[in-house]
Amino acid sequence: QVHLVESGGGLVQAGDSLRLSCAASGRTFIFSSYAMGWFRQTPGKEREFVAAISTSGGSTYYADSVKGRFTISRDNTKNTVFLQMNSLKPEDTAIYYCAARDSYGIGVSIASAWDYWGQGTQVTVSS
Which one of 34, 81, 93, 100 is separated from 2 by 20 to 30 angstroms, measured CA to CA? Predict the structure, then answer.
């Protein structure tokens, strides 16, 4: 079993920054063997891909809507993945979810292709 716990969400103003964290754990879970990703969701909409990072952190991939503003990173010594969000916009308001899967590459932008999910953290950006 894999446990993913997000933190760092909150209420900010447009133009502000937030840093989300996702701590991963599990009895047989080897964090450095899993690609990690961030998705977001608003009421009535499907879960939307935000960013993904490879097992080593050497490769990253972003949705066009966040490219240049958000940065995904990971610390394999602390079993944690981060999402640094700068220049936040009201349209970034959503519940942000951390996800894990055992491979990077094809399908990383598809929610159904990910194996494990956290419970989410709310990010609200006021105008």
Answer: 93
Query: How many C-beta atoms surround the C-beta of residue 85 within 10 A?
Result: 26
Q: Which residues contact 43 (CB under 8 A, 6 or more apart)?
A: none
Give dist(CA 69, CA 64) in Å, integer. Answer: 10
pLDDT tens per residue across span 9-39? 999 999 999 999 999 999 999 999 999 999 9
Are 123 and 94 spatial neighbours (Cβ–Cβ below 8 Å)? Answer: yes
User: Which single residue is written with the structure tokens 């047989």?
Assistant: 28
What are the Cα distances from residue 29, in Å, to 3, 25, 116?
9, 6, 11
Is 21 within 8 Å of 8 (Cβ atoms)?
Answer: yes
Confirm if 118 and 64 have CB atoms less than 8 A apart.
no
Nearest to 24 by CA among 114, 105, 116: 116
Is residue 58 a contact partner of residue 72, using CB atoms and an 8 Å limit? no
